[in-house]
Specification:
By secondary structure, the chain is an alpha/beta fold. Helix content is 39%, strand content 24%. It has five helices and five strands. It has helices at 7-14, 30-35, 39-45, 61-66, 95-111, and strands at 2-4, 20-25, 51-56, 74-79, 82-87. It has a five-stranded mixed β-sheet with strand order 1-3-2-4-5, sandwiched between helices. It starts with a strand and ends with a helix.
Length: 114
């Protein structure tokens, strides 16, 4: 999963013609670390449908604030710069919940003809 370092890099990435899933996290978040072991497998599973990126909320606080990212980890899906769907809450997330969210993101994108 590519780590985004700047707001400009983030904006460039989400403008692509591909479905982009941004995972927002922090270094100190135990729920973020709990999902780390299986995220590479999910990224590989969904590689054909989307590109996954990660954003450290503490390194890009203004971007996170603009996007109303308060609970972490949070996932936000973009296509051509537009937000399509999000999975944002303060609760921890299971692999199954994340898979359901990614499946839903693919369905939303498909419904929009992407």
């Amino acid at each position: 999963m590519k780590e985004i370092q700047t707001e400009a890099q983030f904006n460039e990435k989400i403008q692509s013609g591909r479905l982009i899933v941004a995972k927002f996290y922090t270094d100190w978040c135990p729920d973020c670390h709990r999902i780390d072991p299986f995220m590479p497998e999910l990224e590989d599973t969904y590689r054909e449908q989307m590109t996954m990126i990660s954003v450290n909320r503490d390194r890009l606080p203004q971007l996170s604030e603009q996007l109303n990212i308060f609970g972490i980890p949070s996932f936000v899906v973009f296509y051509k710069g537009e937000e399509l769907i999000r999975f944002v809450s303060r609760a921890g997330k299971t692999r199954t919940e994340i898979e359901h969210f990614l499946d839903r993101a693919v369905q939303v994108a498909g419904a929009l003809g992407q």
